[in-house]
Amino acid sequence: MPELPEVETTLRGIEPKLVGRSLARVDIRQPKLRWLITPELSSEMPGEEITHLSRCGKYIGIHTSKGTLIVHLGMSGSLYFVPAETPPLFHDHVDFCFADDDVWLRYTDPRRFGAILWTTEDWNEHELIRHLGPEPLSDLFNVDMLYARAKGRKVPIKTFIMDSKVVVGVGNIYANEALFKAGIRPDRLAGKISKVRLARLVECIKEVLAAAIKQGGTTLKDFVGGDGKPGYFKQELAVYGRAGKACIVCSAPLKEIRQAQRSTVFCTNCQS
Q: Using CA atoms, how far apart are residues 56 and 133, in angstroms rounded to an integer?
């Protein structure tokens, strides 16, 4: 599933070719994604100039003076450019076509669990956005905030930092990696971790996400960035997907458990 670094990579890849351009039309071939694409998208967005792009967690906002296109890549979605008039493949569900350019922005999604929504309201107040926690790479995500929210919580720390109401966009891959880097067991209760250790975890979350963005994200199966290229952070993974293999620090075999139906891999020696 595309996580925050993959979404940020997508945004950075498509933004230079979108800002300042006006849409000629939106071709919707398959409206049945996670939520139905409403007809207003095809009638209201064409003719609008794209002013800027932004991101909140795993949501991309493509903004015009009239409204905002909200995109979520779901489990297998991607946005990338294709030459105009390129015939769509079976999983290519939406094209954003420009009159003044010879490339189109295409949305493809084999599993159709992504979302493309149009709103004329402030997107920060949209029901999908307004309850999200702070961005992990912002100053709002700090040890004081995390310590206050963790106090008394009897949930595993990995589950806790993956809660989008606590901090937005820390998905499974990067939660595994950040906890390893911080030396914290993923099954330790959030409310039992000292402020000093949480401070280190905040640093590691920021470091891991920043490194992944620099590498263009992590391609495990379906993800490609806005330029159609895969991400290369997979080569940097210390624990995720390495169950049973030697720890890169102590050489002990890495252990795998399931938490909230997700794979969790950690080192029983290096994490406590």
A: 9
204 near 181, Cβ under 8 Å? yes
Asked which of 21-25, 59-63, 199-203, 230-234 is least confident by mean pLDDT, the reply is 230-234
Please name the amino acid found at residue 247.
C
Spot the catalytic one: 6, 8, 55, 58: 58
pTM: 0.85
Q: Is 253 among the catalytic positions?
A: no
Q: How far apart are CA 148 and CA 141, in angstroms?
A: 12
Alpha helices in 151-194 (DSSP H): 157-161, 172-182
Q: Are 118 and 67 in contact (CB under 8 A)?
A: yes
Q: Does the annotation count 32 as an active-site position?
A: no
Q: What does the CA dihedral 190, 129, 230, 52 come to, rounded to 10 degrees? A: -140
At 238-267, the pLDDT tens digits run 999 999 999 999 999 999 999 988 999 999
In angstroms, the first-to-last Cα distance of the chain is 28
95, 132 contact by CB (below 8 A): no
Count of CB atoms situated within 10 Å of the CB of 250: 10
**Residue 55 Rama label (left phi>0; alpha psi -120 to 50; beta):** beta
Q: Which residue in the list 25, 197, 229, 262 is annotated as catalytic? A: 262
Reduce the DSSP state of residue 9 to 3 states and report it: helix
